[in-house]
Amino acid sequence: MLIALTCILTILTYQSFVKLQAKLNKVWLNPMLLTILFLILGLYNFQIDYEFYDNNTEPLNFLLELSVVTLGFPLYQQLHAMKKQWKVIVLLLILASLLAIISSFALTWIIISQQEIAISLSLKSITTPIAIAITEQLNGNIAVTAFTIIIAGLFGAIWGIKWLTLLGVNSANAQGLAIGTASHALGTATISQISYQHAAYSSLALILSASVTAIIGPVLIPIMINLIGG
Amino acid sequence: MTKIIKHQWINIAYAIVSLLICLGLGYGISAITGGLPPSLYGMAILTLSLQLKWISAERISVFTTWAIRHMGVCFVPAGVGIIEHKQLIQQHGLAIVAITFVTTFLVLTFVGLIYQKHEEKSQTKPTNNDTSRHS
């Protein structure tokens, strides 16, 4: 009963913000972000533990997994067009994953100078389960990893398309690849509403960048730790 | 009319069962081989099953389109989890958010610009005229 109530409340809040955004037509009125902020304020106000909320929204977590599977559909629809670009896409995503890891690690080391935070931030562009596993393996900080994954996802989801359009990147395929690489499933979920091409290319980037990072992360990050003398 | 509605419900059930099977298989593969999380294996299995015509794309199209349009709500509980990291946010919050901001946009820019350049280049090549591009 409590589970149903918490889930329905979450869905209703989200739907209200979807309606609000449709009415006012503003990108920054992102329903996901507003629902998160609204519920955080609600939990604070009524002094409810996050654990209580999390336990009672378990069905939504299951639906999240199922909805990631549905992204296989747009991926299938674009597979034919993608086949010809296969090599370029893989090469580009390997380079992009290297860039994501190295730039985040270096910048964090320069600004915060804490090894465990640098490890966590270098994994923030990929999907949570893989990032957490690698963070544990390399003795990073799991809380930082989890936190920054959400922030990176929200940035791409809210401003990704706007930023790319500003740069003159109007191709749906390029926008999809970029957001899937930088902002994982959260960014993918948001832009998948725009077109099948966005959904397909973002889903492909999501899978590939997660796979590439899972392979190179555990090798590259220890090398960088050695370089900084850790 | 009622026949069409009944047909739609059958297709929705078909789509849900297909997705559940893909996710279930994803769990199986993830348990055996590790590596990617179950849902990403499930996504790859769905793509493969559609390609091999084990699952009918036509029958799952309406449901998956609807599900993709609404999947954002499923990320809300994880997002609310930020509340758990209050201490961390107080300590390094601003720096962490700033670094995440800069590096996320760096990756977006890198991938977006290069792939668009590549597309423009391959479109101007006369040998690469692909009709599927316009579908």
TrEMBL record, chain B:
It is found in: Cell membrane. Keywords: Cell membrane, Membrane, Transmembrane, Transmembrane helix. Its main location: membrane. It comes from the Bacteria. It is a multi-pass membrane protein. InterPro entries: LrgA/CidA. It holds the Pfam family LrgA. This is CidA/LrgA family protein. It comes from Thalassotalea profundi.
